């Protein structure tokens, strides 16, 4: 019994610390909006969006008309396209990362002629890792009791934490490699500058000696 309350408490704490808020942005007819999300490898990402069309008569936004949708493009840290397709005015999409790092997610309209407005409002919500799992649906499909479902949630959160830790190690290794490479380049650049200055000084001395000998000053 105490174990059940303990798990419930842990899950509540995890949910309170991982609350995500959706946002919205305005996009014009030819504008392209991109977002950068740092994602560990082998992590599922779920994106929800909804498009509304500006109505100049009411000076507000209304549900978009048929035919207006969004082209969504996702690229991994190696600039490889993971996903690129046109979706409707409202929907959700998901993809799984295979390379840790900064993933770029871009959205732009699939139409060049909008009827009834010149601006769109896009409601956008992105969920990464364990947040992208619909546990209510999992419980319904697998017919899990409440305690088993909470254990499943806790295990999912632990797995996501481990992925985040591995990603932080990966970032630290890359930062260390970049720092060492930069220090090495700075060292060799300093050595090159010293060599150039020594050669220049030697050439100037030879030139002055030849000049003095030609003028018969020495």
Structure description:
By secondary structure, the protein is of the alpha+beta class. It is 43% helix and 32% strand. It is built from three helices and nine strands; from the N terminus they run H-E-E-E-E-E-E-E-E-E-H-H. Strands 1, 3, 4, 7 and 9 form a five-stranded antiparallel sheet that branches. Strands 2-8-5-6 form a four-stranded antiparallel sheet.
Task: Throw out a few tags for this protein.
disordered N terminus; five-stranded antiparallel sheet; single chain; 3 helices; alpha+beta; four-stranded antiparallel sheet; about 30% strand; about 220 residues
Largest sheet: 5 strands, antiparallel
Q: How would you spell out the order of helices and strands?
A: HEEEEEEEEEHH
What would the principal axes of the Cα set say about the shape? elongated
Oligomer: single chain
Query: Over the alpha carbons, how many angstroms does the gyration radius reach?
Result: 30 Å
Q: Per DSSP, what share of the residues sits in E-state strands of 2 or more residues?
A: 25-35%
Overall mean pLDDT stands at 77
> How much helix is in the residues?
40-55%
In the predicted model, the low-confidence regions spanning at least 5 consecutive residues are: 1-21
SSE class:
alpha+beta
Tally of strands: 9
Put simply, the count of helices is 3
Amino- and carboxy-terminal Cα gap = 104 Å
